[in-house]
Amino acid sequence: MANVTLRSVRKTYPGGFEAIKGVDVDVGDGQFCVLVGPSGCGKSTLLRMVAGLETVTGGEIDIGGRVVNGIEPADRDIAMVFQNYALYPHMSVYNNMAYGLRNRGMAEAEIKTRVEEAARVLELSAMLERKPRQLSGGQRQRVAMGRAIVRQPKVFLFDEPLSNLDAKLRIAMRVEIRKLQRRLNTTSIYVTHDQLEAMTLADILVVMNGGQVEQVGNPLAIYEKPATTFVASFIGAPPMNLMSTRPEEIRAQLAGSAAADAGILGIRPEDFAITDQTPAGGVALPLTVEAIERVGAETFVYGSREQEDQRVAATPGELPPGEVIVRIPGTEAPAIGAKIRVAAMRTKLHLFSGDGRKRIEA
Amino acid sequence: MQKQAIFQSKLLPYALVAPQLAIVLIFFYWPALQAVIQSFLLQDAFGLSTSFVWFDNYLELLKERAYFEAIVRTFFFSFAIAVSSLSFALLLAVMADKPLRGSMLYRTLLIWPYAVAPPVVGVLWIFMLHPSLGVLSRYLRALGIDWNPLLDGDQAASLIILAAAWKQISYNFLFFLAGLQSIPRSVLEAAAIDGARPMRRFWTVTFPLLSPTIFFLLVVNIVYAFFDTFGIIDTMTRGGPGKSTETLVYKVYSDGLLGGNLGSSAAQSVILMIMVIVLTGIQFRFVERKVTY
């Protein structure tokens, strides 16, 4: 039972490199917070600072009403699941889970109860005597989880715990982690670079880029109202279509509103429809179909615009200039090379300042 | 499928291994064979007649009290050298593994003693600890210790152990450092979060994970203490005072080359040869298969 509050937390390495440039996040009791961002954005560093494995060079980290900046990892009452699981290779599964409890001087009988309970929940009861090297990736992952839950800590920290698993197992474990966290109701901070994992797990989503927080909030709220073009293209797959508003084709359609000041227009692939009509205040674009991907439930259409000449600020997952992705039901599929016209409604337009740092409400 | 080189001529492969074979045959097998033959022979005091005596040399050896004393002494030396150099090297490696400023410099300096030849090590330590010339001897005497390894057998023994262990520290240090660096950092971090203080972390995580390295080094150090300390003993004490620093290897030399008892010396070296074979066997068997934790 604890809140975790970060107050303008900074990390500057001795060489002068600023890994974390002032982060403010408040994770409420029992909430599941996900830190997401591309590699090198500082999300793992931030998590390790909460764990006490990295020093804090500025600001405060508060766990359960206590500032923990100078407190050893052991005394922060946290448990962490590492990306490579970090199991003790010379200890059995049982001892891996019991180690943290023994270090705290718990009675063997109580340890046995707790470990067996955790093993039952994680379906590890049959392999308590095995060594980690005799386990599969998924089982190791569950031992690492078990090691965290037996301690009954105030906070769980997860550092990309699923990235070493294959795709199917990853989805299954993702659901397991969420169920477990809901049942234990333990405050959790989870680091991932996978936006889908982030969207599905988070109560609060923190999107990070370059050592800074781009946006904090409910995952769906972030999806619906991304604060910057970085968030717009990072959250959601395929990414949001971003285009400059400078070409006359677009400028004319946006005229007469606050949108006229915007530098960048964003439209999600699913908000387009192939139609000859233009909804009032909406935007329509003529496209030439370059490629299509049919994945069953839906079809992705990759089209190119003729007049595009303005490249939008580089962001992860960005499309080549002039390319637009449209997501339509799987029953439809235009021919390659066909000229089509797509349109999006006024309410589905996302407008940003020219540098992409600010959202403009139309 | 193994990669195999294909030779046009049938003779070429043999020609290529011939130099190595020649060296092995001339410098290893031939002397070894000589030793085995010699160990069955008895020469009179003037070397005029030689007779075949079967296992008499070995039986004589078993009756010799000095031989048993040399065995006990050798085992004691090996144990003392291995334990002291291993533990000190581990301590240094743990220190050097920490992220320190200039750690590369420490590491390099710590490796240097390995490059010093054993007789030079002996001379070096004698200079420091010689009863009348030694720099350190003066301080020891100032502390009220009656330091004279030339007369006191125990002091001579401790001097040999000190010098031999010192030389081996570098080698052990290198392996320990490599062993420590191969332990994933996250495992130690997990232990830290699990509430293990540094000392407990070392004994419950680091040390068990180093056990394959420790076992390997233990065998290597015993072999070293058995055989490679000859140079140190010869330059420092020549087995003396009395026989207080005479190890099995040194006894082979002093009985055979100084005492002229070639038959007994040969029998002793055959026994030593068997010991090396056994130790090497142990090493291959356990180390190659990797000691598991």
From TrEMBL, chain A:
Q: Which UniProt keywords apply?
A: ATP-binding, Cell inner membrane, Cell membrane, Membrane, Nucleotide-binding, Sugar transport, Translocase, Transport
Q: Where is the ABC transporter domain?
A: 4-235
Alphabetical GO biological process terms: carbohydrate transport; glycerol-3-phosphate transmembrane transport; glycerophosphodiester transmembrane transport
Q: Where is the signal peptide?
A: none
The Gene Ontology CC terms held by the record are:
ATP-binding cassette (ABC) transporter complex, substrate-binding subunit-containing
Quote the InterPro entries the UniProt record gives. Answer: AAA+_ATPase, ABC_transporter-like_ATP-bd, ABC_transporter-like_CS, ABC_transpr_MalK-like, ABC_transpr_MalK/UgpC-like, Mo/tungstate-bd_C_term_dom, NA-bd_OB-fold, P-loop_NTPase
Query: Could you tell me the superkingdom of the organism this chain comes from?
Result: Bacteria
Molecular function (GO) terms for this protein are: ABC-type transporter activity; ATP binding; ATP hydrolysis activity
Any Pfam family the entry gives: TOBE_2
**What kind of membrane protein is this, topologically?**
Peripheral membrane protein
Which Gene3D superfamilies does the record associate with it? Answer: 2.40.50.100, Nucleic acid-binding proteins, P-loop containing nucleotide triphosphate hydrolases
User: What subcellular compartments does it reside in?
Assistant: Cell inner membrane
Family indicated by similarity: Belongs to the ABC transporter superfamily.
Q: What does this protein do?
A: Involved in beta-(1-->2)glucan export. Transmembrane domains (TMD) form a pore in the inner membrane and the ATP-binding domain (NBD) is responsible for energy generation.
User: What protein name is recorded for this chain?
Assistant: sn-glycerol-3-phosphate ABC transporter ATP-binding protein UgpC
Q: Which lineage is the organism of this entry classified under, starting from the top rank?
A: Bacteria, Pseudomonadati, Pseudomonadota, Alphaproteobacteria, Hyphomicrobiales
From TrEMBL, chain B:
Q: Mostly located where?
A: membrane
User: What residue stretches are annotated with the ABC transmembrane type-1 domain?
Assistant: 71-283
Indicate where this protein resides in the cell: Cell inner membrane; Cell membrane
Alphabetized UniProt keyword annotations? Cell inner membrane, Cell membrane, Membrane, Transmembrane, Transmembrane helix, Transport
Describe its function.
Answer: Part of the ABC transporter complex UgpBAEC involved in sn-glycerol-3-phosphate (G3P) import. Probably responsible for the translocation of the substrate across the membrane.
- Entry's family note: Belongs to the binding-protein-dependent transport system permease family.
What protein am I looking at? sn-glycerol-3-phosphate transport system permease protein UgpA
